[in-house]
Amino acid sequence: MNNLPQLQVVGLTWGHISWDLLALPPQDIILASDVFFEPEDFEDILTTIYFLMYKNPKVQLWSTYQVRSADWSLEALLYKWDMKCVHIPLESFDADKEDIAESALPGRHTVEMLVISFAKDSL
């Protein structure tokens, strides 16, 4: 409906480099929604993203992230994998924050938009 080019969908397991992943052409943007759910998966996710960024240093990961605990942080892993992260305020999407980050869970849940890329010294 949006006249997009044909898209290739590849299943993957975070932290594992498959033949399908190796065969992907260079990407501009990787879209991910709420992939940073369990802290024990954070490094596997960033390992896979690092591989894709290594193939194409200009690619960016755009992801939403729901802050579930102040103890869960990507900062050390981003540093380890030589990546940087820019937080995009939900308000910049010209919509009410509550409408964007709806949740049926009790209490307030902070949802952030992250753009992750290689740190400048990596390029």
Automatic annotation (TrEMBL):
GO terms for biological process: methylation. It comes from the Eukaryota. GO terms for cellular component: protein-containing complex. The keyword Plastid does not apply. Keywords: Methyltransferase, S-adenosyl-L-methionine, Transferase. InterPro entries: Methyltransf_16, SAM-dependent_MTases_sf. Pfam families: Methyltransf_16. One of its GO terms (molecular function) is methyltransferase activity. This is Methyltransferase 23, arginine. It comes from Rhinopithecus bieti. The lineage of its organism: Eukaryota, Metazoa, Chordata, Craniata, Vertebrata.
